[in-house]
Amino acid sequence: MNKDILAQKEADVKALTEKMENASSIVMVEYRGLTVKELTELRRALRAEDVDFKVYKNTTARRAAENLGYGKFAETLKGPNALAFGNDPVAPARVLAKFAKGHDKLILKTGIVDGDVVDEEVIKTLSALPNKEGMLAKFASVLNAPVIKFAMTVKALAEAKENGSAPAEEAAA
After folding, report:
1. One pLDDT digit (tens) per residue for the chain, 173 residues
2. pTM above the 0.85 mark?
3. Three-state DSSP class for 156?
4. Residue 91 and residue 72 in contact, taking contact as beta carbons nearer than 8 Å
5. Is 99:42 a contact under the CB 8 Å cutoff?
């Protein structure tokens, strides 16, 4: 094999290894049978969520996965595969699972989420979660709920005293 070609292949594996190492989540899909129009639609949806979607040679992806110790991931690299890389652990799974519901030719295969190899069921479970901002908003609302309830109780007590009526707890005593 030509030294230039070999050097290029080694550089491709190294670049993919770094990309896999830096991603919060990676989802592998089989895209056989999708039209160009459908793939364009999928890429557009992924781009909107800041997810990188690319087709790699299976041998390149296999070597990169093995370099990082993801042997189970490497074993599933058969057929026409594409990889979706996201900085948000949920975004690739959410977009791909939503797209797969309407396009049965897109098959979710496996993934890597925060360093763990996961199967199709975990990817589907992750797809039901909101994105990072949505999770933070829910967390903030959970933290604010006791404060809001306390403020509403204090307001109700103040209004009851202004009106001269006793609150329900005092009336029962």
Report:
1. 688 888 898 999 999 999 999 988 999 999 988 999 999 999 999 999 899 999 999 999 999 999 999 888 888 888 899 999 988 888 898 899 989 988 888 899 989 888 888 887 788 877 776 666 666 666 677 777 777 777 788 888 888 888 876 555 554 44
2. no
3. helix
4. no
5. yes
